[in-house]
Sequence to fold (708 residues):
Amino acid sequence: MGDTQRPAKKTAKSRPKPASANEPEFVQLLTPEGQRVQHPDYDITLTDDEYRGLYRDLVITRELDAQGTALQRQGQLGLWPSLLGQEAAQVGSGRALKPQDTVFPAYRELGVQWCRGIDLISSFALFRGTDLGGRDVAADRFNMYAIVIASQTLHAAGYAMGVAMDGAVGNDDGEAVVVYHGDGATSEGDFNEALIWAGVFNSPLVLFCQNNQYAISETNARQFRLPPYRRAEGFGVPGILVDGNDVLATYAVTQAALDRARRGEGPSLVEAYTYRMQPHTTSDDATRYRDEAELDFWRAKDPIVRYRKWLSAEGLADESYFAAVDTEAGEQVRALRARVMALTDPEVTEMFDNVYAEMPPGIAAQRAEAVEFQASLEEGSDVR
Amino acid sequence: MTTMSMIKALNEGLRRVLEDQPKSLVMGEDVGRLGGVFRVTDGLQKDFGSDRIIDTPLAESGIIGTAIGLALRGYRPICEIQFDGFVYPAFDQLVSQLAKIPNRSGGRVRLPVVVRIPYGGGIGAIEHHSESPEAYFAHTAGLKVVTCSNPNDAYWMIQQAAAGDDPVIFFEPKRRYHSKDDVDTESAGLDLYRARTLREGRTATLIAYGPTVDVAVNAAAAAAEEGTDLEVIDLRSLSPIDWEPLFASVRKTGRAVVVHEAPGNIGVGAEVAARLSEECFYSLESPVLRVTGYDVPYPASRLEDDYLPNLDRVLDAVDRSLEY
Ligand SMILES: Cc1ncc(C[n+]2csc(CCOP(=O)(O)OP(=O)(O)O)c2C)c(N)n1
Ligand SMILES: [Mg+2]
Fold:
């Protein structure tokens, strides 16, 4: 795969400019109709198995995410932030990562988590409320979800500084760091400070912006006059706009940016132009701020439909393959569902035990008090 | 008298402010077209226009910082922070700027900015959506901090907060948002910075505010069935605190229990206990007790019932106070 990569370095002239808000000029390798097109700077050549694998990832991601929505509706989760429509952005970028790379997600990155091969249960536990989503982030090289918008961009910038300080960059085996964030996140000070840091310290960081057109109800017009990939330029960080509903383009562009970072050539920002097909979360009512026509416009750009068309046309996969993927997705969903339903409420001690490396005596006393109080209620010694 | 939810009462209160005060503005994330994630500002943009009901970029420091600038220009912004846990990016603008600029100006500048913050737990939310950060702001000289516990107070207090010339942090107990009660739309009844005695009693005084007022009232009702008559006071204002009703009550009952959701450590309850011991020392029959959230980060929602002060913990504290 490595020999097909092109560096992300480009002159200002060759960088695409958006023609209009709805039809930006972005890197695209596969049209919504499933036509493979060429781009002067980006290309991709994968093995047949890898091409098929991307389809499998897209479908399984979509089905697992749909299960999140279903579980919330059934009262099994408190909340679910659906990624429907953003599968290609997540799978394309997620599969471009090498094992040594480190991910800082926001809170909608189930597809990236899937591609990293990390147990998904932590994300479901977080939204079920049985824990705070904790995992072994060092082993996973995938950090915890970040609910406070843009906070993770600075953590990623610092981590990337550390990677460079450790001398873990400089060749094709170097480490790269990727941070996922939304279009809304670009308004926070933290995000802009992360760009400054990454630029000043020339860190091996890729800022991966999923521009899904919305920050809850607010459109891009409330977050910026110039799109994030162009703003990055002002910070000395190269920016590139990619069709986020095109898994091949997202893969190619992210891989180039990651390779640039791992070789020690510095940070870049990838803006994946996509769309959030569901409300912000299961708590949101998107009918208050957008209409069906807009959804139809984006339905026609569905990332899976176009990729399936192309695979069929190329003879890379047939109906029996697609059916097998559907079957596997169903199995994945059933297995996950059973595990989510089996997540039980934590012990009261859980809230005390992990706050400090060295538990202060006062906390230990409160812990004992909470345990004792709970026991007294369970004994029913008190009619209250 | 009309019956309203707290959300509706706040919405109606804001409407009156916007009608009466042409310089007032509402600004925050999703407050316009969506009407706010809790719908507190529902319909306001339609009626008052997008120049006065402003959907801001997603940046809390920006919201408060620009509100200060607008206030310097003669406007009267009412800001919304979407959830308690998202106020911290604005900390500098609140604590070092909004709180201090009027004083630095030698009193020449006034910053009539209201910052509404839905706060507290009990709604089964994920992290950062259930916090009680009032102590940070009550600790900061230059800010006033209030919180409503019922629709009538919500309706009037938001108007009173917007009418004054000092910055006010206005905490709204989100788990009480849908509670309905009578609202007297004719007369305010009580000043913004006054505490209210909700129930008279002789045995002990329960002191609560915001979301725990309901807990205290229910505890008092349960205690009454067991023959213990508790006095219940709703602080309403956390900075300044209206001390006289507290002193008078504790001089009568000799016992006090403070109830809040925020962690107890260095919290509002600690201040109340300290002042009561300073001012009512000879009247106290037992130490002032606190029933609060534990001194840990707000836990996963499946544990929040164990974390939050509830009827059992309040009555247990009353028992301990009486047994002392
Ligand atoms: C600091 C902060 N402010 C506000 C919020 C509430 N909030 C949660 S998601 C969101 C919109 C985020 O939009 P974007 O960055 O585009 O990400 P998307 O949800 O579209 O993936 C807001 C305002 C938050 N989580 N953190
Ligand atoms: Mg977005």
Summary: Chain A touches chain B at residues 78-79, 126-132, 147-149, 184-185, 187-190, 215-218, 222-223, 283-284, 288-289, 345-346, 348, 350-352, 355, 362-363, 366, 370, 373-374, 377, 382, 384 (CB under 8 Å). The longest strand of chain A covers residues 205-211.
